[in-house]
Amino acid sequence: MAAIPGGADHSHDHAHDHPSGFMRWVTTTNHKDIGSMYLWFSFAMFIVGGIMALVIRAELFQPGLQVVDPDRFNQMTTLHGLIMVFGAIMPAFVGFANWMIPLMIGASDMAFARMNNWSFWLLPPAAILLTSSLLVPGGAAASGWTLYPPLTVQMGIGMDMAIFAVHILGISSIMGSINIVTTILNMRAPGMTLMKMPLFCWTWLITAYLVIAVMPVLAGAVTMILTDRHFGTSFFNAAGGGDPVLYQHIFWFFGHPEVYIIAIPAFGVVSQVIPAFSRKPLFGYASMVYATSSIAILSFIVWAHHMYTVGMPVAGQLYFMFATMLIAIPTGVKVFNWVATMWRGSLSFETPMLFSIGFLFLFTLGGFSGLVLSMTAVDVQLHDSYYVVAHFHYVMVAGALFSAYAGAYYWLPKWTGHMYDEKLGKLHFWLSLIFFNMTFFVQHFLGLAGMPRRIPDYSLQFAEFNKISSIGAFGFGLSQLVFLVVVLKCLKGGEKASAKPWDGAEGLEWTVPSPAPHHTFEVPPVVK
Amino acid sequence: MGLFLLAGLAQAEMRLNLQEPITELGHKVYDLHLLMTIVCGVIFVAVFGVMFWSVFVHRKSAGYKAATFHESTTVEILWTIVPVFILLGMAWPATKTILAMRDTSNPDITIKATGYQWKWGYDYLKGAGEGISFTSSLSTPQPQIRNEAEKTVDYLLEVDNELVVPVGKKVRILTTANDVIHAWWVPALAVKQDAVPGFIRDTWFRAEKTGTFRGQCAELCGKDHGYMPIVVKVVTEEEYAAWTEKKKAEQAAAADDPNKMYTVEELAPRGEKVFAANCAACHQANGQGLPPAFPALDGSKVVLGPQDGQIGVLLHGRQGTAMASFKHMSDTDLAAVITYTRNSWSNKTGEVIQPSDIKMARE
User: Fold this and answer.
1) One of A42, A77, A299, A331 is an active-site residue; which one?
2) Are A309 and B194 inside 8 Å of each other by CB?
């Protein structure tokens, strides 16, 4: 990008050396454009996955079959999971990374600008493959997002489409991660040592390594399913010398780090927002870095706690329980650090701060239900029940999604040059908070009382809580449209944002004007 | 009004905790879960007590000025070390419970539970009742599921043949599966064990009181995953002895002579029953199936084609589709159901498949 003729004067419009209209977005190599596309894409996928969630909750509103048949129901749970994990949350945080990492470290763009374009444009075909698989004979994959064989071997062509979509999404996130690692390690402004980086960059550096390490593992696992399906191999078929449980080991060796691939950038966002609105530096910066790294390392050695009931040796159950419990320690350090950052600060509660506090409160709740689940003997009761569904929605929705909202509200002024509508933002937060808990808190009780997950119909004792949960889900879904309104309003106009609209905010991103010009930091700033 | 609400809640049975356990192990799990929840709850209240204190007191709008501290090695070490001890305190009872849970030695009765899409098969392998064998499928009528009839109290948690076990005896359950992974879960017994095709896993329980206890398959196993409940009937030892006698007598009476030659009239009604219990979930009672995932049998090329082809599909399943192998069924049942499909709906082959044909195909 630096080779564009015209040299030093880059502060104004650049339409003359870029294609305009649609082709601008297809060919762009600008990290801000690509970041925006990632964010819009993930929001669109969030809506698609959300509609599927509402189909699920509509069916579960009362006992009996009303809305979809059981096979369609299973397709809904499967695609909801795949789309939310790979299509919504992961791309959302890659979008944040694209937009903010160069601005935070004083780089002019991402290291591999063209690869950046390619890693985004792989996403839409994958999304089309996934969603259109609903229309093929036999319907979409209906095996749950975990794609356990031998069930996956029974499915129709929708399963193959899901496998290819996972391949493509995996390639995209690996390329995105290589870009992030290279950018952070090589393109920091002079004087910005690693331990001076904003914590968001640290969390993404660690996450990117996790992605590079585990996405190929997932690709291998689903490829083995593909060859079992079509080429007569027996990786997961006992009759041919394979083992269905082998798949689960491989999948969760990817799957557990994946949980942290989603959670760690969320930690990063919150670590930017809480100090800004506490008007006080982040407490324990160094220990935050160490805690995040420990979580990442531990995430590789706890995978089989997703499989306590497969019948592994008791020594294995004990080992995975102890290792899993260890994660509570660095996670606790992080929570304590955030609370200590707020302690004796000068707090104000704009929408980003509200979402961060919501994150802190509810993510910790999800962490505690995780600790309960880490106990093998208790997990044997709760495994594959609605307790687990409640647990991971606390960490995925109240964790990752709330933090993404915190980040979006925090940086919207920088992206658009306008302040968002604070009243609507707060409305969005409070509606989300109330309806989220209404949807998912009661699911703890359903799981404890014995309701299995992934069932389209249930016995009468579960009727009341399911009704509450379904009403909450529809409320939560509709509340998210408030966010869309806020963003559209903010794009159109509103109060002009200054370069640094938050008085407590720190960092290089606040030294450039709002909206951030197309090209920033062509001359690297010097960090003292 | 308040009373009315309370009555409504009580009636609705909105259970907030694990089901009442009826095994010693179940009590341990119940207590462990309660302990964990309380410890976590206390820590949660303490941490967020501090946070909300800060939220209410350290406000900019109240004129509070921010302090500047941003680290404290002592505090940071403290809140790393203290949780270690809390976790150690939790790990101790958890470890003891797991060790007890996995001790399946010296059972009084051993029963094999086999997961099929979508029902359970039980074989009493050892101990009192040895040799008894039956399948257990959902008995809730379709109209209830389709909302055409009032749902009864055990909706989706009722089966045609319950698993009967004596009270106070150590029952070891071996789990396996015929097609995909299932999981055998009865909450009141505190038992959940995956049933993996091609492998045998085990678990155990010793019921402390009599009664009927209900659970469900816990591992997603396809279309009717939500429709394969598990019902365990715990009875006194005398009742158990009587039940085994009765069951064995029934089994002896129902035993088929493998060499008998049947007519269509003899086999088709039996085949209709077998079809309803095993095939209708996918291929539908009217033989139209749910294409394309579950093909129609009415007018099907396989059903109207050579017998060996259809027998082969039933014995070996169809790799890459939901059609599982049904080789676990008796020769007579298979012969009956094949005869039925070849002579039902618009299929009029007039052919009779004999048990001996199946026996030959197996060899």
Assistant:
1) A331
2) yes
